[in-house]
Amino acid sequence: MKEKIYLGLSIVLLFAIFFAIASGDVVVGVLDSTLSFEWILLLVFTLILPLLNAAEIISNRDSWNVLYWIGLLLNVVAIIFVMRFFKIEMLY
Fold first, then answer.
1. Is the dihedral of CA 85, 35, 29, 90 positive or negative?
2. Other CB atoms closer than 10 Å to residue 40's CB: what's the count?
3. CA 61, CA 73: separation in Å to the nearest integer?
C-alpha cells in the first residue's frame, strides 16, 4: 500500500512540474529571485520524495518491489526537468 502512495506522489509531482514549467510564470535562470509558492512546494517535494523512496528501498531489501524503483526513476526525471528549467548545470 505504501509503495502505491509513493508512486502516486511521484506521478503527481512530475505532472505538477510539467504544468508549472508550461505556465512559465517565474523568472528563469537564477534561484535567488522571487519564486511563487507553487515552485517552493515543488522544489521541497522534489528533494524529499527521492529520499523517501530510497529509504524504503533500503529498508525493504528482502522484497524487491518494482513500484519503489519506478517512483525513484520518476523522481530523478523530475529533478532533471527542474534542473533544466532553472538552468542548473552539474558539470562546469
1. negative
2. 10
3. 18
Q: What are the cell numbers at 60?
A: 525493504
Q: pLDDT (tens digit, 9 = 90+) per residue, 35-78?
A: 777 788 888 999 999 999 999 889 988 777 888 999 999 999 99
Q: Retrieve residue 16's grid coordinates.
A: 505538477
- What's the CA dihedral at 15, 16, 18, 21 to 10 degrees? 180
Please name the residue ranges forming H helices in the chain: 2-23, 37-59, 66-85
How many angstroms separate the CA atoms of 53 and 92, rounded? Answer: 29
53 vs 90: CA distance, rounded Å: 22
The pTM assigned to this predicted structure is 0.81
Q: How far apart are CA 76 and CA 23, in angstroms?
A: 22
Query: What does the block give as the cell for 53?
Result: 523512496
